[in-house]
Amino acid sequence: MVNKPAQRPQNEQLHSPKAVTPTRKSFQRLADADRRRALLEATLDCIGEAGASGASARRIAERAGVTAGLIRHHFGSMDEMVRQAYAHLMTQLTSEAAEAARAGGDSPEAALARFVAANVMQPNLSPRKVSLWATFIGRVDGEAGYSVIHRDSYREFLEVLTRLIHPVLVKHGRPSSPEACRSLAIALNGLIDGLWLEGSLDHGLYDPHRLPGIALSAAEGLLRLPDTALLRHLTDLPPQD
């Protein structure tokens, strides 16, 4: 007697490898996203090396390993790609710090401390990134597209800071209205920007490794928190090179 092969259960059939195989369209979308990102990164690299005037379409395409025709396909024009490279840079700066905050555990102080410190540590603390930022910031007043990107990225950064500040103020019994949190986020952003800018220039006046501690101590003062409320989380930060 020949035994018939056991029939595969219905739920197993639904979860077979064939059912979850990505379609050709999904592969295409992934490839498009990768090429677009490669062009943005290549744009930043070329601007960092040769300045905005030296970042030609041909040079950027060669750096990205794609044809120059893909610039028009993904961005419509060279000018729009450069604007999107600025947006990409600003998104990187905020997202890397926000990712550090999410790794801070359940404590609101730890999350805020990691966010503040990440902005004045590598990879955000970088001569290349400050140089790129300076190249783009000069266009903010005169070109509407850059002004919109600057405003949107600044607003996003303030929103992240405001969300991180609020639970810390509540925990320590400090005024925590939306207006109070927003004002403190603006002040703390100014502190972060100044330390990031000067620290990235590496002028030799102080060791950049001191910046996280300086930033956290100053943030405690701005928020009127007890001593070491943020500084005690300095030991939780990843080591710096």
Automatic annotation (TrEMBL):
Superkingdom to which the source organism belongs: Bacteria
Protein source organism: Pseudoroseicyclus aestuarii
Record flagged with keyword Transcription regulation: yes
Region spans: Disordered: 1-23
Keyword Transcription: yes
Domain HTH tetR-type intervals: 33-93
Taxonomic lineage of the native organism: Bacteria, Pseudomonadati, Pseudomonadota, Alphaproteobacteria, Rhodobacterales
GO molecular function terms noted in the UniProt entry: DNA-binding transcription factor activity; transcription cis-regulatory region binding
Gene3D superfamilies, sorted: Tetracycline Repressor, domain 2
Swiss-Prot/TrEMBL keywords: DNA-binding, Repressor, Transcription, Transcription regulation
Protein name: TetR family transcriptional regulator
DNA-binding region per UniProt: 56-75
Pfam families with a match to the protein in the record: TetR_C_6 (PF13977), TetR_N (PF00440)
